[in-house]
Amino acid sequence: MDGPKVVFTLNILGGIDITETVVMGWLVILIVLLLSLFLTSNLKKIPTTKRQIVAEMLVNFVNNTVKTAMGDKFLFIAPYIATIMTYSLLGSLISLVGLRPVTADLNTTLGMALITFAMITYYKVKVNGFGGYLKGYASPIALMTPLNIISEIATPLSMAFRMFGNIAGGTIITSMLYMGLEAASRAIGLSFSFGGFELHAVQVLIPAILSLYFDLFTGCIQAYIFAMLTMVNVSIAADES
Questions:
Q1: In this structure, what DSSP letter does residue 200 have?
Q2: What single DSSP character describes residue 86?
Q3: 16-21 long-range CB contacts below 8 Å, 24 or more apart?
């Protein structure tokens, strides 16, 4: 699978390439904005519409997830958890309509992981002080410093590569499947051409079934895992002494 294609180039600062990831990322942001406006319009103290009921169910799901994983004192972090879950989920599920998943780009998942890593570091410094934070790298003995540094760096990298690997891997497998089914269609004479449009009969059903796993199931699971890893790592950092 090739990397994200350049959609257009801005003629500023020597030329800035705008890739599919950037365009799809802004599309996801627009979708989230429209969904938020739709679900939160004309709210009542007592829900009177299905729209508000769905909105409250989603909010309660995120709040309960944060409470279970981190405790009530971290409920303030729920908006961030909701943001990364929504963005990563929709960023993966856009592949269901034939668009390139945002999360199939390592730049996206690494960016999300670095934000989480910044939060982890913030709480470690807050709890132990900057001196105590640096001293922690030499714990329990100074010889462990290189390994502790590697372990610290591995946290955002593992989070980033886990989601990227699963989503990109599914995209690669699906692409290879389409190529194989196209060849099979041609081999048995079930490929048809209508002007510039080609129809390969064997491609019609099988990829759709596999998309339920590679796109829908994997996208949901990876978004949830990323959010859980964020909550666990931040809560551990905040509880260190």
A1: E
A2: H
A3: 19/105, 20/100, 21/100, 21/102, 21/105, 21/107, 21/108
Q: Are strands 16-19 and 6-10 parallel, antiparallel or unpaired?
A: antiparallel
- Among 129, 41, 116, which residue's Cα sits nearest to residue 81? 116
Torsion of CA 185, 187, 190, 196, to 10 degrees: 70
CA distance 204 to 181: 9
* Three-state SS at 43: coil
Q: Tokens 């714990």 label which residue?
A: 139
Residue type for 169, please? G
* CA atoms of 212 and 86, how far apart (whole Å): 18
Residue among 103, 100, 49, 75 nearest 223 (CA): 103
Per-residue pLDDT of the chain (241 residues; tens, 9 = 90+): 567 788 888 888 777 888 889 999 999 999 999 999 998 888 888 888 889 999 999 999 999 999 999 888 899 999 999 999 999 999 988 887 778 889 989 999 999 999 999 999 999 898 888 888 888 888 888 888 899 899 999 999 999 999 998 888 877 777 777 777 777 777 777 666 666 666 666 666 566 566 666 677 888 899 999 999 999 999 988 876 4
What is the pTM (predicted TM-score) of this model?
0.82
